[in-house]
Amino acid sequence: MRLPLSIGQFLARGATVHGGRTAVIDDPATPGGPRPAATYGTLAARAAGLAAYLDELGVGPGQRVAVVAPNSARALELYYAVPATGRILVPINFRLSRDEIGFIVRHSGSRVLFHDPELAGTVAGLPVDHVLSLANATGPPPVSDVAPLVTGAAGWSPAEDCFATINYTSGTTAVPKGVRLTHRNLWLNAVVFALHAGLNERDVYLHTVPLFHVNGWGLPYAAAALGVPQVIVRKIDGAQILRQVAEHGITLMGGAPAVLATVLAAAQTHPGAVPGRGRVRVLCGGAPPPPSMIARFTEVTGWEFIQVYGLTEVGPLLTLNQLQPEHDGLPAAAQAELLAGRTGAPILGASLRIAADGEVLARGHGVCDGYWDLPEETASAIADDWFCTGDSGHLDPDGYLTITDRKKDIIITGGENVSATEVENRLVGHPAVADAAVIAVPDPRWGETVKAIVVLNGETATEAELIAYCRAGLAHFKCPTSVDFTEALPRTATGKIQKFMLRARNSS
Fold it and tell me: Domains in the chain, ordered, with CATH?
């Protein structure tokens, strides 16, 4: 007998085995008031109530339900209720403009749009049948029958190859693409992520990863199956994160390097011992921080740093790098080099290879079915059952992956390839530099040359000084020939620099 893998099975198990255990603690700042703390039994009843409400609205299996909101307990309920009952959830980055949200709503064909109350003006009048605020005082009433979470809407059970979510990329290209992820993709990603992260019934998970980013990386599903309490954070604030760690006994969280940076800043001024020392595990994805930041973060907080790498199109986890027992005796700087230098080994069920042009290709259970209503882009991205990641890198003899750059971001100057990441890491090592990005600009002699865009940390530095600093540590052909200064770099919610925007500014 083959039982189809379905998203609903995670919360159904949580309600059965851990029905009386705390499931969700909402952020107190949630507009309309936070949801009262819910047990897994209550959470399942609320999700089933949402499913019944969608039945009343006439939203059937296979139809799309969008949500645009920061993290909240009410938003989290949709991530269980919608795909579990055969509909397709369309999470949308709440930082997008009205036009960008409208594009996704129209392209996905969403019939319902749930939104955070603070976004009411942004989404008003968008072309959907129902625009519903998450600020509803109670929401759809909970129901005692949670069977739809397993059997689907109106008794229809989704097959494991049915689409569960369409997650629109917010990455380094100008036009978002809807990534079709199936129940099988998400089910296996959640289980394998939990295995590698060591998730267990004694953990407490902090929602610092935005839910819209590949369904919070899939960890909310694994947490539900194991009865792990989930603490919601609406906005990233280092001091608040430290308070949550102390108050709720947080043991696991994730986020981009920017999240780590704000925690580190708060920890450095925190009175007394930093909470969670020796207890908290941090999954860092989105962009690799430099070794110096990792070493400082682990020294100050005492938290374990785990590097993860993936993409929306692979569900999202692809590789993971964490210190092994044999690394325990190494100096902190050496440990940081091991964690920063390589993204890690492929997760269970994934395979990697490097194409002739250096692009990283991936195969595995998490690789998406393709892009929603974009057959040409799908055919271009998935060739011979290998997904083209768009990242360049190399595999070491032990199978660990190192990402050198986005394929399109490699700079070819005078016939030599330059990794923008290598130059950026050099720049952020300067005591006056807080952030840096490197792009190619046209050059009449070399074809392309290296340009740096730099954010200073309050100290002063000149263009000539930064170029000289790079030349002291890198081959000269890799070094910037010009430097611009800016107050902030454009980044996605996951920390990736939006270099297409920087190129557009420097195209003339």
Answer: 1-184 (3.40.50.12780), 236-408 (3.40.50.12780), 410-505 (3.30.300.30)
